[in-house]
Amino acid sequence: MVKWMMLMLCSLPALAQQKEVARITAVFDSAAVAELYSSTPIGLEIRYTDSSVRRTSGLLKGDYSWSRIKVESPDGECRNGVLRFSRNNIRPDNYRIRLLVSLQDEPGNKQHEVDLQLPFLTAIRFRHYTDSLKRGIHFYLNVEGIYNTGKIYPLDTTRVRLYASEGRIIGQDLLIPQEDSVTKAISVSAVYRGNREINAASVIPVKQGADDESLIIENEKDLYRKPAKKKRKE
Predict the structure, then answer these.
(1) Cα first-last separation, the chain
(2) Would you state the pLDDT for residue 96?
(3) Rounded to an integer, what distance in angstroms lies between the CA atom of residue 195 and that of residue 92?
(4) CB 194 within 8 A of CB 121
(5) Mind spelling out the 3-state secondary structure of the chain?
(6) Would 228 be classed as within a structural domain?
(7) pLDDT of 13 over the 50 cut
(8) Listed residue (150, 161, 154) closest to 194, CA to CA
(9) Per-residue pLDDT tens for 91-119?
């Protein structure tokens, strides 16, 4: 009986010290390029009803160890502060993922529902390296994605579908035959595979006339060759 009372008395201060969680917020690592990849380190900020705050170790460099936290999600998994998610699953909710957080220090195995907004594409655009394409030479169709984070990244054909009014698309290159002497310009378009409403269009002029071969350097002597003088008209 005495031993039991002593255990109760010892446990009372511990119970009194337990603080009630008011809110948990989550952030992702902005340097992890979550715009393109389906994994990112995350951090949790735990705010208590007495206004005190604790942060997780790792990304937020806090003192709350991930070994004392359990994070579940219907759209991914989180281990030791690294979240892996399914981009297709979170697309319908505008790329917001739901996390169910349990703290080992909190009694009752209570789960806190925490929403984490991940980056998503808002627009795409063409950014051509040259102002015209040449017949018989591959022209790279450079497509850039603009994200809600303000970041811009190049996109490949796993993210966009490419279309052209003339010529042939090979991978991400546009090729117009050397013998084509009719086409003056080519209309191209790109459609985001995740949402057809996100698209871009551009018109690329086809270079007309032959290149000036007088400036082509064939050997080192051409470096010292003076340009030919034009004859004056009499």
Answers:
(1) 127
(2) 96
(3) 11
(4) yes
(5) CHHHHHHHHHHHHHHHHCCCEEEEEEEECCCCCCCCCCEEEEEEEEEECCCCEEEECCCCCCCECHHHEEEEECCEEEECCEEEECHHHHHHHCCEEEEEEEECCCHHHCEEEEEEECCCEEEEEECCCCCCECCCCCEECCEEEEECCCCEEEECCCCEEEEECCCEEECCEEECCCCCCCCCEEEEEEEECCCCCCEEEEEEEECCCCCCHHHCCCCHHHHHCCCCCCCCCC
(6) no
(7) no
(8) 161
(9) 999 999 999 999 998 887 799 999 999 99
The parent domain of residue 60 ranges over 19-117
In angstroms, the Cα distances linking 74 to 47, 63, 78, 90, 113 are: 24, 27, 11, 10, 12
- 82 and 139 together in one domain: no
For the segment 204-214, the average pLDDT, to the nearest whole number, is 74
